[in-house]
Amino acid sequence: MVACYAGFLDIVVLLSGCPYVDINHQDNDGNTALMIAAQAGHDMIVNYRLNYYPGLEVDKRDARGLTALMKAAIQGCNNCVTALVLAGADLNAVDPVKGKTAREWAVFTGRFETIVQIRRLLQRPRAEQFSSEYLPEWPALPELVAKALATKTRGERMQEKIRSSFSFRFPHDPEVDGVMDHMVRMTTSLASPFVSTACQTICPLSPPEVGKRRLAVPEILRAQVPNAKPPAEAKTCSGAEELPGCSQPPALASSQPRGSMPSFLPLRLLRRSSIFPEDHVPRIKLTKPPAPPASAEEQPEESQDRNTLRLPKWRYKELREKRRAAKELEEGS
Questions:
Q1: Cα dist. 56→50, 97, 217, 294, 310 in Å?
Q2: Which residues pair with 209 in a beta bridge?
Q3: How many helices and strands, by DSSP H and E, does the chain display?
Q4: What would the pLDDT profile of 35-70 be if each residue is shown by its tens digit?
Q5: Taking the CB of residue 305, how many other CB atoms lie within 10 A of it?
Q6: Where is the stretch described as Disordered (predicted)?
Q7: Dihedral angle, C-alpha 31, 32, 35, 41, nearest 10 °
Q8: SS3 181
């Protein structure tokens, strides 16, 4: 929980291989680690816990009846809301105190961007670009090309010229299903050469979908079962009825040893770790500067030997001895 609150991704990655960690453990307020990470806005940790921690309860409630999706919507963490919704979080869940859903909590707290994000997810509930059947073609392109190549009358050309001369161009958000939306969807799809060379798809026929519970990677590869077959022999993933067409790529099975969980982290996180660095930790030696040599006048005769320790001289003691000697001298005179 502390690692999820502070954003320590390396600690969360290391704890994913520990079999004694209760991923659904709740603190005194009923918060789980997923709730804390979603409320803090750590989308990388939320995605890693959803993908690599099997048996994670997405809709678990705290003491007030709030879920991780409600907490993320209250704080306005759009990336965490998207990850939880596509992982199967219930958008229609209602808390027992206020009787509000995650969308109503976003409206109540004034999170306008979160409301727009949830609306976009509901308008397009299935991420088609993450499926192998997705075609990276813009449906509106033929109509726009035909409109641009069509012959125009003299009045239409004059009207278009006047409109372009006297119109003002103000910056505005990209249009829904426009060219920018299509470019983003096309470059992040499985058909993109950038994605195909950087990752391996486990379930190409089952893209993320709103309201559909997603299985974690260990659940798909049966890595959490002690008597499971090696990954090279496992043809289908667990829960094949939920994820049709889910198969393990052979390159993934050959590159990982038996019983180990394959990692889909970026190379920058695999090559270097802040907890266990690859390089040897340098040894630091602390040395004290040599003491300045004392003069022969200040050094007493009995302490000339370096093996003996001298008593420290305190300034207040010297002043007290001088006052005492002066007082005895006055009394004797």
A1: 7, 24, 12, 71, 68
A2: 126
A3: 16, 0
A4: 999 999 999 999 999 988 888 899 999 999 999 999
A5: 7
A6: 229-259, 280-313
A7: 110
A8: helix
pLDDT tens per residue, range 123-182: 888 888 888 788 888 888 888 888 888 888 888 888 888 888 887 777 777 777 788 888
Q: Which of 90, 92, 88, 72 is nearest to 80 (CA)?
A: 72
Q: What pTM was estimated for this model as a whole?
A: 0.61
More confident residue, 324 or 218: 324
Quickly count: other Cβ atoms within 10 Å of residue 250's Cβ: 11
- Please count the CA atoms within 13 angstroms of the CA of 279 that sit on its side-chain side: 5
Q: Which residues pair with 112 in a beta bridge?
A: none
Tell me: pLDDT of 33 over 70: yes
Q: Which of 100, 112, 113, 28 is nearest to 71 (CA)?
A: 100
Strand positions, DSSP E, the chain: none
For the chain, give every domain's residue range: 2-124, 127-134+176-207, 216-275
**Contact in structure between 262 and 255 (CB atoms under 8 Å):** yes
